[in-house]
Design brief:
Shape: elongated
CATH topology: Arc Repressor Mutant, subunit A
Strand content: under 5%
CATH class: Mainly Alpha
Order of helices and strands: HHHHH
Number of helices: 5
Number of strands: 0
Largest sheet: none
Helix content: over 70%
Oligomer: single chain
């Protein structure tokens, strides 16, 4: 087998492995999103929603707007425009929110949002 053909075969194999890896990540992401929707539904349907967390240096209205943005998958830039602040300020507020809730990742925050029923639909806007 010529060297070029062997190289092409290796590239095709690696591309195939990469595509399978990406599909696995997308499948996992889709499953996490499905679970978050289910948790949110159960939390809201089950009982009273947990009060919004108190976040150091962020008023309750902005906490609610950030939670709403996160729940709809908004970008940091989009939330910054809505809040009239910089994307870096939104990132800092999300970090404080995670600290207040007692989590370290955005995924954990999403799970806690679902469990607690945040954001509260009846309090929006």
């Amino acid at each position: 087998m010529p060297v070029i053909d062997r190289g092409t075969d290796l590239l095709v194999e690696r591309r195939s492995a990469l595509v399978k890896s990406q599909e696995g990540v997308l499948t996992a992401y889709g499953e996490v999103a499905r679970l978050l929707r289910e948790l949110k539904h159960l939390a809201v349907a089950g009982s009273e929603a947990t009060p919004l967390p108190v976040v150091r240096g962020v008023d309750e209205r902005d906490v609610r707007r950030i939670l709403e943005g996160l729940s709809r998958g908004a970008t940091t830039e989009s939330m910054a425009r809505d809040l009239g602040v910089t994307p870096r300020t939104v990132e800092k507020r999300i970090a404080r929110l995670k600290e207040a809730v007692g989590v370290t990742t955005i995924c954990e925050l999403g799970i806690e949002m679902g469990r607690a029923g945040w954001p509260h639909s009846h309090e929006s806007q």
